[in-house]
Design goal:
This protein has 213 residues and is of the alpha/beta class. Helices cover 31% and strands 24% of the residues. It starts with a strand and ends with a helix.
């Protein structure tokens, strides 16, 4: 089963009402934090406070660019200031002449693990399918959960590195299956989670912490 309770944002979404989103049944939000080694999303801190006040699970993603992967990971962590319950993700997608390479993505992922003790998720679409496709599982990236972007009726052609997808971005708010909008935000990126609400909390580290506490 999958549940349609996650959405993702950046400063492009403007002034959002995350209380309304939570009241409409949304559970988690993943927000752009950084890009490369110099860009910080100027709505990240504001929306983090809003999400926490509304009781939403909070995640942060880094838009990878060509360049030192470990340096990008350090920059991301310094600006996203994640706690144990902040989901971490590398956004790995085409970016013209500044597209991150697989080796740079591996370096980013490994540095996150070295610094936090956990592997981030990997968000990608056509790029990761082209690069990994039917190749044997990637020795580093297989440790990441897969967040696949595909605006069709269902995710297809999942690379053999993963047995299945964990999250599926099924719309960018314009194309892809309905619904496209979120209360308090309007049209935006929306995501299915491949599992139950309890499993979603475990992915975020929430249920695990509660059990240990």
């Amino acid at each position: 089963m999958s549940i349609n309770v996650v959405f993702d944002l950046s400063h492009h979404n403007g002034n959002v009402d995350l209380e309304q989103a939570q009241q409409a049944g949304l559970v988690g939000v993943i927000h752009k934090a950084t890009q490369g080694t110099g860009m910080v999303d100027n709505m990240y801190a504001t929306n983090r406070q809003k999400a926490q006040a509304a009781g939403l699970l909070w995640g942060a993603y880094h838009f990878g660019t060509a360049g030192d992967g470990a340096a990008q990971a350090d920059f991301f962590l310094s600006k996203a200031t994640p706690d144990a319950q902040t989901l971490l993700v590398l956004d790995y997608e085409p970016n013209g002449n500044s597209t991150m390479t697989l080796d740079q993505a591996r370096a980013f992922v490994q540095r996150i693990q070295d610094q936090t003790g956990r592997y981030p998720g990997l968000y990608s679409g056509s790029l990761i399918k082209q690069q990994l496709g039917s190749k044997p599982p990637d020795p580093i990236l297989y440790k990441c959960f897969l967040w696949i972007a595909q605006y069709g009726p269902a995710p297809t052609q999942i690379p053999q590195t993963w047995s299945t997808w964990t999250m599926w971005q099924y719309t960018d708010g314009n194309v892809g299956p309905q619904p496209h909008s979120v209360a308090g935000i309007g049209n935006c990126d929306r995501d299915q989670f491949n599992g139950t609400t309890e499993q979603l909390q475990q992915l975020w580290g929430v249920a695990v912490d509660a059990a240990n506490g």
